[in-house]
TrEMBL record:
Domain UDP-glucose/GDP-mannose dehydrogenase C-terminal residues, every copy: 372-473
Spans through the membrane: none
SUPFAM superfamilies: 6-phosphogluconate dehydrogenase C-terminal domain-like, NAD(P)-binding Rossmann-fold domains, UDP-glucose/GDP-mannose dehydrogenase C-terminal domain
Positions that bind substrate: 192-195, 253, 298-302, 306, 379
Source organism: Virgisporangium ochraceum
EC numbers: 1.1.1.22
Name listed for the protein in its UniProt record: UDP-glucose 6-dehydrogenase
């Protein structure tokens, strides 16, 4: 495996990468872009969170970009300059680049095929309903739909998070569906976007990965990222590039997410120990984090991880390891998942304990208790409620008989769709008024800075569970609240 630092070198002319020799060409000089354009024209297939963000950001970097999707209303929305999800900074950038003519959207696969030198596959790979494995049907759809229309040389680049081995399978699909004699190549270049931070993550990535088989594919990917590298150079930054084979590139993404999930579950396991031992997990995490080998990021204990990536990715990874005959290697990820699930149940148990409610055979009985839940999204600065710990707790509280009133600054519409039978408040004030218990389950700024004195005057009972350890216990206790964090002394 080989990487270079953009700051110091332009890619060398020829370098050894695994068993493949990659020839790099100075973009625009010797690289013949199939469409004849000066820079490769980029098509993004799937304009959900990943594809739309990439399309907008690469247009911002100066590329000619086309976003393709089968979802006509979504394409109409994007064409009209509206991002169909919440991502800070993306709306303005979309409008600016649509107006500049660099960015267009279409539902015509023929148009996308004729346009693109590089086709990025950005569709979802959700968990299958019947197993832990990833559902690759959307990836298959894109390739099968696109390949027959590719009448000149092009590169298909996978960005979606997939089980290792998918790129080779995509190559076979292309061979089966592309016109005879067409020179279509495949590459894999995983993304590492964090919701709420995605624009920065595309424009200023901490690394880029090229999983390639040929010199031409490497050179095309380099040309497609020249804008990213140039921006880094002007800001005196480095963007490490790792050029590798398909399998390694695919694994980088799932291994990274498995590591992050493990780190979170590790600190949540420590939180479980801290509770009975009388220790404070926030101080423990701080002390651990000063060791540079451990680092302090992703060590925030709380109600655990959620979202459209970490939970399903660690499951799909286990399923794939089993298929490869090495299931034991990832057995620990099952434990990581279990620790994560326990965090959600712990909030309900703690609620019953704090309110002196009985535990029946079916668990805690919270009938008649009014609970204000602040937060519905899986993290702040996002409207995404997929596998959200907050909503999972809402369901569990309701099942225990509690009357739950939920408020979230951005996630209300999605939450309503996901859990229609909960009550939704229009503000923090409305949610908290008359509540016996307040649970803060997503660390939105608005909740972190809420005034406990004001809220104390509205609630029926001054009991708060801080599921993200994001409130100041001193302030809340001083205002008369019984405060309980996650893994912190009572
Ligand atoms: C994640 C990866 O970070 C990203 O690299 C990948 O491309 C997609 O998956 P994202 O799903 O946006 O990104 O969320 P992330 O910021 O990683 O948080 C995931 C979950 O973990 C959230 O629910 C968050 O609240 C939780 N979390 C995070 C913790 O509970 N504690 C922490 O210390 C960090």
């Amino acid at each position: 495996m080989w990487g270079y630092s953009q700051r110091f070198v332009d890619p060398p002319k020829r370098t050894k990468v695994s068993s493949v020799t990659i020839q790099y060409m100075t973009p625009g000089a010797t690289l013949a872009v199939p469409s004849g354009a000066a820079r490769p024209r980029l098509a993004f297939h799937g304009t959900g969170y990943l594809g739309a963000t990439y399309a907008v950001c690469f247009a911002e970097l100066g590329y000619e970009v086309l976003g393709y999707d089968v979802d006509a209303p979504k394409i109409a929305k994007l064409t009209g300059g509206n991002v169909p999800f919440h991502e800070p900074g993306l709306d303005e950038m979309l409008r600016k680049n649509v107006a500049a003519g660099r960015l267009r959207f279409t539902t015509s696969i023929e148009e996308a095929a004729a346009f693109g030198d590089i086709h990025f596959v950005c569709v979802g790979t959700p968990q299958r309903p019947d197993s832990m494995a990833a559902d690759l049907s959307h990836v298959e759809d894109v390739v099968v739909r696109l390949a027959p229309h590719l009448h000149r040389k092009a590169l298909i680049v996978g960005k979606s998070t997939v089980p290792v081995g998918t790129a080779e399978w995509v190559e076979q699909l292309v061979r089966r569906h592309a016109p005879d004699g067409s020179e279509i190549e495949v590459a894999w270049s995983p993304e590492f976007l964090q919701e709420g931070h995605a624009v920065e993550d595309v424009l200023r990535p901490n690394r880029v990965i090229f999983g390639v088989r040929s010199e031409w594919a490497g050179a095309m990917l380099y040309a497609a990222h020249k804008g990213v590298f140039d921006l880094a150079t002007t800001e005196d930054r480095e963007v490490p590039v790792v050029v590798t084979n398909f399998a390694t590139a695919e694994l980088v993404k799932v291994a990274a997410n498995a590591f992050l999930a493990t780190k979170i579950s590790f600190i949540n396991a420590m939180a479980e120990i801290c509770e009975p031992a009388g220790a404070d997990v926030t101080q423990l995490a701080r002390a651990l984090g000063y060791d540079a080998r451990i680092g302090n990021r992703f060590l925030r204990a709380g109600v655990g991880f959620g979202g459209g990536c970490l939970p399903k990715d660690i499951r799909a990874f286990q399923a794939r390891a089993q298929e490869l005959g090495v299931g034991e290697a990832l057995r620990f990820l099952h434990e990581v998942d279990l620790i994560n699930q326990r965090r959600r149940q712990w909030v309900v148990q703690l609620a019953a304990e704090l309110l002196g409610r009985p535990f029946g055979p079916a668990g805690p009985d919270l009938s008649g208790v009014k609970v204000a839940v602040l937060g519905a999204t899986f993290k702040p600065n996002s409207d995404d409620v997929r596998d959200s710990p907050a909503l999972s707790v809402v369901r569990k509280l309701s099942r225990s008989g509690a009357e739950v009133s939920v408020f979230d600054p951005e996630g209300m519409e999605n939450a309503r769709r996901e859990v229609p039978d909960a009550t939704y408040a229009r503000s923090v004030v409305e949610a908290v008024t008359g509540a016996d218990l307040v649970c803060v389950l997503t660390e939105w700024e608005e909740f972190r800075t809420a005034d406990p004195v004001v809220l104390g005057g509205l609630a029926a009972g001054k009991v708060v569970i801080d599921g993200r350890n994001c409130l100041d216990p001193v302030l809340w206790r001083r205002a008369g609240w019984e405060y309980r964090g996650m893994g912190r002394p009572a």
